[in-house]
Here is the input.
Amino acid sequence: MHTTFYLVRHGRTLFNEKHLFQGWCDSPLTEQGIAYAKALHNGLKDIPFAFAASSTSERAMDTLHYIRPDLTPHYYKGLRELYFGDLEGDPSDLETKKEHDWIGYAYCNGEDRTQARIRFMETLKQIAVEGNVLVVSHGSVICRTIQYLDPTFQRGPSPDILIPNCSVTLLDLDDGTFHLRALPSTKYREHD
Amino acid sequence: MRTQFYIIRHGRTLFNDKKLIQGSSDSPLTKEGVIQAGHLRDHLRTIPFKLGASSTSERAMDTLEIIADHRFPTEYLKGLKEVSFGTLEGDPLIKAFPEGKLLREGYEAYGGETPKTAERRFEKTLRQIAVDGNILIVSHGAVILEFLRTLSTELRESEEFPGVLVPNCSVTKVLYEQNTFTLETMPDASMREA
Here is the structure.
């Protein structure tokens, strides 16, 4: 079986703008976030998707709806962002975040980075079908998956910069094995 | 047609614990919140529900799914969401409730809603999903209180904080018959205990 995943990071949110830790907590899409998601609708409208899924966070559910309102959405906890534990909703100083993004957040009752990547990739395997699958998920779990498949992928900046809002990353799954097909691209959201 | 609504406020969340403003934003249920919802499921197990509906906020969806336990169909509706506090979302609670209560003028100045606007879309949503029988609703403190205030003089005149009048995992029974809502029982938090 061959699956191609179109991994989309949700549109920009209020907490992105306020620089608050947003893993399992959630905030609404901003006007710009909605505009990018609608642009992605144009960028992806000609792709035949056999399945569409997002995390259970409303920012991801809403992004999926703006991209392809014609598809039946499926929601999975396993596609959620890394859980930042007690830090959820706190101001996220970028320097502290840069450091801890590589260590994980188990120390404050959140998730370890590897643990989050594994449940994310396992969920992708569970929903895989023959053909293209649209997935709306989150910066840190997408970033960790890319780094796992391509160790040369840069580690410097925060996932927020490496995986832009409404970027699309292509991932192939062939008989249980993942391959990175294309790094995060914002070209799909440039459509008018 | 006679609809018996069981209106429930979601279980306790991380932002409830952290005293952060949580309207259109969201945070996970705490362990306590999950336990509250589990007790509610056990107490309501004998009631035949036609449908369960929650807002699209995960704290409400999770509370609903714990209570429903695959026993009846569920759906998620934007119309059942909490009052939006606009750009105040995620800020300390005191900023949205300066005197321990909702700002009557609402939160439109911050890009959010007035309590009245939220109440109208909440009520409209109840009317849209009404069927003959029992319906379970999982929604939010401020919008539930604003709706109940249209039905109860006591609640209308109360100055208490919404979270006190409508506690986490409290149940309020409202009857809908001949296009009219009637408050049957006040918010009751006893079923969140074992």
